[in-house]
Every structure is written in structure tokens, then in C-alpha cells.
Design goal:
CATH architecture of the largest domain: Orthogonal Bundle
CATH topology of the largest domain: MetI-like fold
CATH superfamily of the largest domain: MetI-like
Distance between the termini: 45 Å
Order of helices and strands: HHHHHHHHHHHH
Radius of gyration: 23 Å
Number of domains: 2
Number of helices: 12
Strand content: under 5%
Length: about 280
């Protein structure tokens, strides 16, 4: 009886501590979102999206060069990361299947998912920036792609392995070659999960600042030239928020709100897609 009472007390204590921790975490999250909502969105206007940055003290100004540059860097990064990540994940699921090489790639992918982004930035700086002696948008996109690839690999591998083996066997029985089975049967069966992995990869790289400081650096002017330094929302936001000028600080708050809620929206969409996938089973 005494042992049973101790277990009940221990369970009650652990439940209370877990509840307090959960409430504290949620409260901090809503506090951050609330501050960004109040301070960030109050400084957002049409000029934020249509005008470029101005020197400190001048009226007006916006984040157009940073927004467009960030979209371009992220788009090129995902153009590199999506095919590489999906093909690597396909190899692990469909061809590796427990081989030593596949297990090594899985372990390496897991390590890369937790690697500090600044380390990736320094690595790309050493191979793409230092040899040519100037920053470039291409280097920034490669750094972001390296961060996105492990997420896409892991998600693709997991989603493809969830496709029932009987579907593959039925396609093989009809005489379909392996590549056609993968593209027309396995990919279709895991389409929602693959899309979720891509969205998670975008969310992973969209808020990165450190690797871009070493690769694409920044540009205060509107530019679509990937061969030169390029503005990004994260680096511009960092520079504006840490400056002593109030007009730049306001744009920094606006950039923080735009980026935070954009990433939040992407994560919510990926969660909804995963729930829809589970509901179809």
C-alpha cells in the first residue's frame, strides 16, 4: 500500500512538473510571437515590400532588396537541395536497404541535421568564397542547400519506407522496371510526405543568418546578380536591428515579423499535410 502511494505521489509530481514546463514553453512562444506581432507588424507598410533600403536618417525605405534576395537565395538552394535530397533518400529506401553504405549515409545525414550552420558557412567560404576573393549569391545558396539536404534525405527515406511493399510487388508482377515502379508507384504513394519534407527543408534554411554572413554577405542595393554579394532578409535584419538608427531598427522589427510568421506558416502547412496523410490511411 505504501509503495502504491509513493507511485501515485511520484506520478503526480512528474505530471505537475511536465505541465508547468509545457505551459512555460508555450507562454514564452506566445510572448515572442506577441512582441513580434505588436512591434513588427506596426512597422510594416506597402513601402516595406516596394522600396529598397535607404541611408540612415532618410525618410521611407523598405526591405525589397532583402526580400527578393532572400527568395532568390532560398529558391536556388532548394533547386539544388530537393533533387539531391530526394535522390539520396530514394537510394537509401529503394536500393541501399540495410547496406553498410546506406547506414553510413543515414548516420552522416543525422549528424549534418544537427551540425551548427555557421560551420557549414565557414566550409562553403573556404571552397567557394576564399578562392575567388569575393562573396556571391551562389555560395550562399550552396550553404543553404547543404543545410536542407539532410532534412529532405531523412524525410524521403522515412516516407518511402512507409509505402507498402505489396504495391511494389504488384507493379513488378506487371513487368514494370524498378525505376518506373519508384516514380509511378512509390513516389505517388508517398507524395504528401515528400512534400512535407520539402516544406520542412525550406523552413530549416529560411531563417539562417550565420552561413550567409560567410557566403553571400549582404548588399544594400537591389540586385539579381548571383555572382556578386546579395542581400538577404536575415542578414539585413541583423544589421538593421543592431544599428543605432531608429528607422533601421523599425525595419529590423518588420523583417523579423515577416520572416517569423512566414516560417511559422510553412511549418503549419507541413503539419496539416501530415495530418491529411494520416487521415487517408
Amino acid at each position: 500500500m505504501l509503495h502504491k502511494n509513493r507511485r501515485k505521489i511520484a506520478n503526480t509530481v512528474i505530471l505537475a512538473l511536465s505541465t508547468i514546463a509545457a505551459v512555460a514553453g508555450i507562454a514564452i512562444l506566445f510572448w515572442i510571437l506577441g512582441v513580434l506581432l505588436i512591434k513588427g507588424f506596426s512597422y510594416i507598410s506597402l513601402a516595406t515590400f516596394t522600396q529598397d533600403g535607404t541611408p540612415p536618417g532618410m525618410e521611407g525605405g523598405g526591405l525589397r532588396q532583402a526580400l527578393v534576395g532572400h527568395l532568390l537565395l532560398t529558391g536556388v538552394a532548394m533547386g539544388i537541395g530537393i533533387p539531391v535530397g530526394m535522390l539520396a533518400g530514394t537510394y537509401l529506401s529503394e536500393y541501399g536497404q540495410g547496406s553498410k553504405v546506406a547506414n553510413f549515409v543515414r548516420d552522416l545525414s543525422d549528424i549534418m541535421m544537427s551540425a551548427p550552420s555557421i560551420v557549414v558557412g565557414v566550409f562553403v567560404y573556404g571552397i567557394m568564397v576564399a578562392p575567388v576573393h569575393h562573396f556571391s549569391g551562389w555560395a550562399g545558396s550552396v550553404a543553404l542547400a547543404i543545410l536542407a539536404i539532410p532534412v529532405i534525405i531523412r524525410t524521403t527515406d522515412d516516407m518511402l519506407r512507409l509505402v507498402p511493399q505489396t504495391l511494389r510487388e504488384a507493379a513488378y508482377a506487371l513487368g514494370a522496371p524498378k525505376w518506373k515502379v519508384i516514380f509511378q508507384v512509390v513516389y505517388k504513394g508517398a507524395a504528401v510526405g515528400l512534400m512535407t519534407g520539402i516544406l520542412l527543408g525550406v523552413a530549416r534554411v529560411a531563417g539562417e543568418t550565420a552561413p550567409l554572413l560567410f557566403t553571400s554577405f549582404n548588399n544594400n542595393f537591389f540586385s539579381l546578380n548571383m555572382n556578386d554579394s546579395m542581400a538577404s532578409l536575415t542578414v539585413t535584419m541583423f544589421g538593421y536591428a543592431s544599428s543605432p538608427y531608429e528607422d533601421w531598427q523599425r525595419l529590423g522589427w518588420a523583417g523579423a515579423a515577416i520572416l517569423t510568421f512566414a516560417v511559422l506558416f510553412i511549418n503549419i502547412i507541413s503539419r496539416i499535410i501530415m495530418k491529411l496523410k494520416k487521415g487517408q490511411r
